[in-house]
Amino acid sequence: MQNLLKLKLSAFMFLQYFxxxxxxxxxxxxxxxxxxxxxxxxxxxxxxxxxxxxxxPFFVGLIADRxxxxxxxxxxxxxxxxxxxxxxxxxxTFGTFYPMLIVYCATFVPTLALGNSLSLHHxxxxxxxxxxxKTLSAVGWIAGGVTxxxxxxxxxxxxxxxxxxxxxxxxxxxxLTLPHTPPKKTGSDVKLGEILGLDALSxxxxxxxxxxxxxxxxICIPLYFYFVNMNLYVTELGWEYTAAKMSLAQxxxxxFLVLLPVMLRYLGYKKTICIGILAWVARYFLxxxxxxxxxxxxxxxxxxxxxxxxxxxxxxxxxxxYVDDESNDRxxxxxxxxxxxxxxxxxxxxxxxxxxxxxxxxxxSKPLGTVAHDWHGIWIYPAWGAVGVLxxxxxxxxxxxxxxxxxxxxxxx
Length: 413
Hints:
74% of the residues lie in helices and 2% in strands.
């Protein structure tokens, strides 16, 4: 039964990230080249995901935990998200496109938390099996990008939304095959603080934890410059099949996710997370240098893409494990909700908004061939911003004492 369950959960993770990977990377290019939207509008559109992340805790806490079985709610959200994705291609003004994108993100983001929660609830050895199941997320993201790019050639086309819509409907129907997961808090009151993860604020009394939260928020500001601008950058460089090539990032994601437990065991949280932040520093300096390096440009950009596994896993996955290790049974759920709110909500919104403003600010008055932006200017500021975060983290953060850093080791509290 567990083998069948793991197979179903792996397929679910694949479909979930196939949807995400089929539109999120290339949306900025579609908005810029097809809809002719400006940088501020593109940044705001990527911030729609952040708004969805801020809405999700209310949705899950007030509805999922009290009234509906998780698998049924996942089915409903998948089908509704698919229907919305079929509407989006017909919206060609920002005043209609942006609100509908927010509505879509409000249906998709809750599936991330619900899918993880359902998986952890039913797996008998979650610390061992969940990371391996989660690798199918990266595979799904790769498949979404490759399908859009190599099969449909749709980075500049609205076909990306139709692809995501079809996959979303398949996800919704497939969710009905997942094990029954009844609501956890039927008939009980849910406090606002519990929904937002505010019960975890007591952890901020620990100096290192407060430094960690502050640095995670600050690193999100330069981080989202990559997600908002990267596909448009390589498109202006003349790359073809951009979504497929950018999916190489998820190949490195799988590799470094497997290496993460070893790094944490031997290096601890501080050194591992520092390596993650340092990877962001290197990524942005490479991108800034590539803008003015004709002969070395492609190699630098590919290296920046392949750094993704270190950038993401050693920073965010390690960070989520640090939060889990610092919390206890009473506030663990609240702590994870709080860090998700910071990373995917507030941090995402601020970072995406500033990235859009930067793209607008560095738009060239006269394009140089296919290049319409001063890309060195766009990339150099997040590079130095990441350097600042790295220095603060190095100086002030301290590793937790007498805490296990292995995701495979049971905790006894």
